Amino acid sequence: MPIIGIDYDKCISCEICISACPSLVYSKNNKADTKVIFDPEKKCILCGQCIAQCPEDAIIYENMGESFTFGEIGELSSLIPYENMFKFLAGNRSIRRYKKDKVPIEILNKVIKAMEYAPTAANMRPENFTLISDSDLIKKMSDAIVEEFSKDPSLKEQFSKQLEFHAKEMR
């Protein structure tokens, strides 16, 4: 488990870890005037909120992945002006009619690298990505998904238009 315990030399008994933890692995020690108790038997979900919120850096942990600070970036507007970001977001639309041209591997690698650093709601990065560029395999997988969706009446009803469109596009 990445959370090992509490460094009681640093802990000031502020109890922030107790309120931060959705898994209730921390509790107040009512039998002594010292500190908070960490219960390693309870299931930590590895969200890292106790680490992030502890003002004294008293949570002992390991293997929680890389930690990044963005101090060197400065103001977001220095990277991209608001107007440009707004135009990009406002103009971004889903495209359902894909080009036949393959995306260069260099671009795909950049996209995957960016995905590795996308927010995960946890301070760990357990995601794995598989890149599939073989059009025959993509068609087989798409057909299998359509087949599975078609077996479930609620999914079939919910996605009937998409399934019909997919059938036309994959021909």
From TrEMBL:
Keywords: 4Fe-4S, Iron, Iron-sulfur, Metal-binding
GO terms of molecular function: 4 iron, 4 sulfur cluster binding; metal ion binding; oxidoreductase activity
InterPro entries listed in its UniProt record: 4Fe4S_Fe-S-bd, 4Fe4S_Fe_S_CS, Fe-S_Ferredoxin, Nitroreductase, Nitroreductase-like
Transmembrane segments: none
Pfam families: Fer4_9 (PF13187), Nitroreductase (PF00881)
Regions annotated as coiled coil: none
Domain 4Fe-4S ferredoxin-type span(s) in chain numbering: 2-31, 34-64
PANTHER family according to UniProt: ADENYLYLSULFATE REDUCTASE, BETA SUBUNIT, FERREDOXIN III
Name of the protein in question: 4Fe-4S ferredoxin-type domain-containing protein
UniProt source species: marine sediment metagenome
